[in-house]
């Protein structure tokens, strides 16, 4: 059977597919022996076909009924990407309950709030660590009736009166199927298109997390539209390694996987992700820019260790790829000689490199969440890897805009996704309306009302504009972060931060200057890149903190800031945002300390408050600042580190007085 | 002191069985130096038994006596109810005793997987020629042993370094690989020589958790040497304290902690 026929067959069952269990049933009937899930365990990829997976899911659902799960109950799922966790979510839906995946690295206090808010009576935990956390929060949260866990290790000694292994629940479900089959079938048949499919908590750069309620309609329509847009079919392979609590993972690993019927591959552990990526060679891939940055940094570091011949070959052909690779990918005309040379390069360099990276079979992939450096983006595209950008939100069931094939650029986020309407208000804030628009924030009508209006338009909170000739959307910054400098010119921190972050040496930047006469910045260095540089240049350091204070490091960073200032000065609108003074922070901004969200977005207000002493020093002209910072260790204990940070003055480009006032 | 032969129940509810190994009046001399002087104690099934003491107390010598590497001049070692004759190290391994070393003793050039596989040697019955030909029996045997090894790799969470040469690993991970190799032998008695030496706090915590998990999951009896008092007190069920080759204390961590002789040995005696 050819690809197209298979695709056509996938589409056949489109009618009446109004829930995940219905899609699962269709997949089992149409291609029950095709692989649905793979997970690497004990060094081997274990595989489940759709038929096998369906049996497991049904057994879990029966187990849920036996436990007393009722319609409308919430079932929290906390763990890494494993088939059993995905099954638990679908099983929850079968039983009429609402799955609520949570971030597994959240500390107990964060989890307490979310658990209390959603009122989950049942919790599926990955392992002992998560169970311990749930037990800890039970001191404050009392509604939890039963804890289930996947990994039995270390669990023997626990009080099992309200706890059980998922496998045991499955077995009990199987044993008791005669009693519960009818009830389960009844509950499955009662699911409607507008019932809740899943509830996902937004990480929230400000305030408490909000529970976004997504209906079956939201999930299935979004999955269908996006799958059509990129011609996804059941032959795709994806690697599921992003947090299960994140909407993207739900859409890719459940929504689209069930809609298209493709295979979800789960890595062995978080640390083996890169190896597993290489072994699976996904055809459809999603990663935040950070993953691509890290990979590129590693490639470059390894190339420096390679032999002379290899280095020359690499640089020669990469230069050629830079010239024509992107054009070839976009289907633009390229000379015959160049094509031939590209083919040779593919044989000698690009192909092997792609295999090493795990992108040998890469057909289409996305990056989103943050801006990606144009050089990084172009590097992958020039290799023939069809990497694109999309812009999305939990509230939109991911998709707001996407880049169509052939119209891919580093500086835009694409055109509105199918069935998505877009408008921009007079302040520049982006609004959208689509079938994917969320139902509500759970138990939070005020926030729902302030985000979504009566006509279904949702405020993104991002400021941007639509390019006139291409129709592509460009994002400037978070609307609330865009401010004004003292002289009235525009302050858009993200724009400058991203430019700086595109340097491999720089991991994170926070720019300040709203309402002030000039901008100052916090900078986090990237330990991998700078550490490697230090090793090569015989710069000795004993700790991250010591490395950040090294004068040569500061010198390098200063050069980057200077270059960025030049480029910022060239932008008429944002020339006021040049960095006058900066400091390289002595610690990495970290989610455990509350400085970032779990999805690694900086909590600007929090950082501003926490490091107010450093900001004050940046503005008052002092050459250095002594500071003590509280840090949280991985096990939740707190400590503090003190440091004296050097403040560096960066050269700025003088800008002619703005003409804004005259206009 | 607990001396009923039926065993006892620990604070956290684990049942400790009868005596697995008993040291009776052990004395070990190197020429004129007396490393161990007339020491007796026992190790019971399923317990974590620690031997502690300041530097030079004779801990490692004691462990070497248990593992059969040193033969004491006086005294007897009883293992599973019978007096142990003098034996060579591989015979000790065959009896079900495995160990890790204070100074890591791994095959540096080999991958983690291969290193752990060496722990399975005792379970390989095919000869070198069969293995070289890699036919039938040898292949099946390797598959079987690889499976056992993979379970241990999973258990100790070292999947990400499975194929990495040991020489490229940091210290803490090497220690974990050594533990993996010892576990691969499926020992009845596991001897750990300073498992936390040279580790940072986080690595120590990880290691402690793994030691507890091993004991809990496989029911392995563990005897360990350590001079980090804090770790030992949290981990072990019973502790033997040595100082200058003599036993100065033996009992539960609490008993040992309140033993005046132990306090003196560790903190020194005030002379006022």
UniProtKB/TrEMBL annotation, chain A:
InterPro entries cross-referenced by the UniProt entry: AMP-binding_CS, AMP-dep_synth/lig_dom, ANL_N_sf
Residue ranges of the TM segments: none
Cross-referenced Pfam families: AMP-binding, AMP-binding_C_3
GO MF, one annotated term: long-chain fatty acid-CoA ligase activity
Keywords for this protein: Fatty acid metabolism, Ligase, Lipid metabolism
Plastid listed as a keyword: no
Domain AMP-dependent synthetase/ligase: 25-442
Gene Ontology cellular-component terms listed: membrane
Source domain of life: Bacteria
PANTHER family given in the database record: AMP-DEPENDENT SYNTHETASE_LIGASE DOMAIN-CONTAINING PROTEIN, LONG-CHAIN-FATTY-ACID--COA LIGASE
Protein name in UniProt: Long-chain acyl-CoA synthetase
UniProt source species: Ruegeria halocynthiae
UniProtKB/TrEMBL annotation, chain B:
Entry keyword ATP-binding: yes
Methyltransferase recorded as keyword: no
Domain ABC transporter, first and last residues per copy: 21-269
Gene3D superfamilies, alphabetized: P-loop containing nucleotide triphosphate hydrolases (3.40.50.300)
InterPro entries xref list: AAA+_ATPase, ABC_AA/LPS_Transport, ABC_transporter-like_ATP-bd, BCA_ABC_TP_C, P-loop_NTPase
Top-level lineage group: Bacteria
Signal peptide: none
GO-annotated cellular components: plasma membrane
Single GO MF descriptor: ATP binding
Name of the protein in its database record: Amino acid/amide ABC transporter ATP-binding protein 1, HAAT family
The organism of origin for this protein: Ruegeria halocynthiae
